[in-house]
């Protein structure tokens, strides 16, 4: 039986709202820059409006408060990966090709210097602002998980994969890619992941995943 969490019942949709409005885009870029420079606590909505630059009424017409804006920044940073996932849902290509493209986009996202910095900011401010953790998880990992789950469900329906639980398969695939390198980068043990390490992980994870989930009844 296919299992879906409550968060993943909204279906699959492309990510495109972030770049449609020039003022919204300017606000998001200014907010991201200030959050990275000052942290969440020290960044005010007044400062974001000034940096964008937009009026405060314009700022609040797009975002109800600083938490809402922070969530949009996280969501926007995940947009490229979500677009990549969406593009591969109906693509006429092999599962190996799709998974490799998805993996490359995932690495681009989670190992970006900005992404590592945002993770550190959130962790440092969780005691004072516990909602930041939920915001990050809801606007980033949850949406990526749902899109990948939908992709695997479609591969299951096509008979390419044999999955009882597409969402669990998505969790396992992302976990294989992430490994312990991401934690090392968050802790400053590693500055970044090398191209050789990245390639080695992808080359190992994809065949292992497919070997575990390939539909062996399909000729």
UniProtKB/TrEMBL annotation:
The keyword Iron-sulfur does not apply. Gene3D superfamilies: Homeodomain-like (1.10.10.60), Tetracycline Repressor, domain 2 (1.10.357.10). Signal peptide: none annotated. Keywords: DNA-binding, Transcription, Transcription regulation. Residues 21-81 form the HTH tetR-type domain. InterPro entries: DNA-bd_HTH_TetR-type_CS, Homeodomain-like_sf, HTH-type_TetR-like_transc_reg, HTH_TetR, Tet_transcr_reg_TetR-rel_C_sf, TetR_C_Proteobacteria. Pfam families: TetR_C_7, TetR_N. One of its GO terms (molecular function) is DNA-binding transcription factor activity. Residues 44-63 bind DNA. It comes from the Bacteria. This is TetR/AcrR family transcriptional regulator. It comes from Micavibrio aeruginosavorus. The lineage of its organism: Bacteria, Pseudomonadati, Bdellovibrionota, Bdellovibrionia, Bdellovibrionales.
């Amino acid at each position: 039986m296919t299992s879906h969490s409550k968060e993943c019942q909204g279906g699959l949709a492309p990510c495109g709202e972030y770049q449609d409005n020039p003022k919204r885009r300017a606000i998001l870029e200014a907010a991201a820059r200030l959050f990275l420079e000052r942290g969440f606590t020290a960044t005010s909505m007044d400062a974001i409006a000034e940096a964008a630059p937009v009026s405060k009424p314009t700022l609040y017409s797009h975002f109800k408060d600083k938490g809402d804006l922070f969530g949009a920044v996280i969501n926007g940073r995940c947009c490229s990966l979500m677009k990549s996932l969406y593009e591969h849902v109906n693509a006429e290509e092999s599962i190996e090709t799709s998974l490799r493209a998805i993996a490359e986009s995932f690495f681009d996202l989670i190992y970006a210097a900005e992404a590592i910095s945002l993770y550190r900011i959130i962790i440092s401010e969780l005691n004072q602002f516990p909602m930041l953790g939920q915001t990050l998880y809801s606007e980033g990992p949850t949406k990526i998980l749902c899109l990948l789950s939908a992709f695997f469900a479609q591969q299951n329906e096509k008979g390419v994969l044999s999955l009882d639980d597409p969402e669990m398969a998505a969790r396992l695939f992302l976990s294989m890619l992430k490994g312990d390198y991401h934690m090392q980068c968050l802790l400053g043990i590693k500055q970044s992941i090398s191209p050789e390490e990245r390639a080695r992980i992808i080359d190992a994870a994809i065949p292992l995943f497919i070997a575990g989930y390939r539909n062996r009844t399909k000729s």
